Amino acid sequence: MSGRPKASAFLFGWAAGAGCVIASPVSLDPLIVFEDMRGAYLDGPFAERVEIRVSSDGRMGSDTLLIAADPSVPEAYLEVGEARVWATQELVRVVHVLDERAFYESREPAPTIAGSLAREFPPLPLPQLDLALGAGDVPPVGLTEYAKNIRWLSAHADEDADPPFIEVVGRGDRSEVTLRLDVATSRLDSMSINLDGGAITIDLSVERLEFGDLAPLELTLERREPVESISELRPRAGDLIEGDPLPSVKFLPIDSEMPLVEIGPSSVTLFYWEWSIAAASAYSAMQEVAGAEGGAVDHWGVLVLSPFQGEVEFRWGLASDWVAPDPGYYTVNAQRSIERFDRDARAVMVVVDGEGVIRLVETFGDATPEQLSDDPRATPDPELSAELQLRIERAVR
């Protein structure tokens, strides 16, 4: 780091001999700005969420990426869609959030982490890779594959803005680039890239996170087998079995005023495509266990709907009398819920112990959604309900 004053110091500095704050905007040297920004990203581990908006030929698209990095190692963790990625200069490791049985890994040295990722993914609009984990050019000649060979033309600070910011403008081979920095941290707030005279625009907005908010940089490979390509990582029906740690499984309340629910430790959940004797028996057993445990065991009944199966309220009404006084829940994403445990079951009951480990997966019947038929008269079978109660009690402890 040079001995030059920080760019942010200009923003609130006093005019020499004038006794007053410098009026904005204040022209700055881009070199000083990038020295500050690189120093801020190298200062320690960081995590950021990047919202991406792309416009091309009148069409709009958006996405969100997450990056956590420790430049001192260096290594990075990324969330790219449903892929979770761990990368160094020698290694890229990838898992899929809906695939508990496989992982992909490549080992081939690259000059930078961005280079490692470029071998496996399309160009990622993450300037942090170049700022914190790149070749170290100051100012950088490239920020992402979409802005290469940049000549940085100007920088200025605006103290009248709320919040104040520093803006840097550059021009590349095919691009015009504008960066905005947070004055307090010298880290990126936003970036806009205009390609080919504005035919394509890429706008990034950055949210700073606590480093610990994201998953650990080292991805566990326990219970996973290697595959030959990232394309082989995919949702696998029935990949969650007894003894597995519970991943994130969420569902919605029938009452829209209630919050989203995620299955947690010490719980039993019933997913059901249709209300039936089996579903009624399982839910009755769940209620008995929850009552006996004095609230120490959470329990949920989750109606599974295909996108074409009619109104939630009507389908829920068939089971509500038997579920009462408990609230009802539903999901329209079978792939992320019931099919994680069994693709063909009419209902699945899942018991999770206090450590968050799946201890029991009980399946009931086989059917496709087109064959389902709710039975509003279905009541619990006493023998089945008693047997399921014993199984839940053994599993949850």
Task: Summarize this structure as a short list of keywords or feature phrases.
397 residues; alpha+beta; Glutaredoxin; 13-stranded mixed β-sheet; seven-stranded mixed β-sheet; 7 helices; 34% strand; disordered N terminus
List the helices and strands and how they pair.
Layout: H1 7-11, E1 26-28, H2 30-42, E2 46-56, E3 59-70, E4 75-80, E5 83-87, E6 91-96, E7 99-107, H3 113-118, H4 128-133, E8 151-158, E9 165-171, E10 175-182, E11 188-195, E12 200-209, E13 225-227, E14 250-253, E15 261-262, E16 267-272, H5 277-292, E17 298-304, H6 312-323, E18 329-331, E19 345-352, E20 358-366, H7 382-396
Parallel strand pairs: 7-13, 16-17, 17-18
Antiparallel strand pairs: 1-8, 2-3, 2-12, 3-4, 4-5, 5-6, 6-7, 8-9, 9-10, 10-11, 11-12, 14-15, 14-18, 16-19, 19-20
Name the CATH class of the largest domain: Mainly Beta
| Main beta-sheet annotation | 13 strands, mixed
Regions with little confidence, pLDDT below 50 for 5+ residues:
1-5, 8-22, 367-372
User: What sort of overall outline do the alpha carbons produce when their principal axes are compared?
Assistant: elongated
Q: What pattern of helices and strands is seen along the backbone? A: HEHEEEEEEHHEEEEEEEEEHEHEEEH
How many separate domains? 2
Q: Output mean pLDDT.
A: 84
Strand content: 25-35%
The chain-level structural class is alpha+beta
Strand line-up of the largest beta sheet:
1-8-9-10-11-12-2-3-4-5-6-7-13
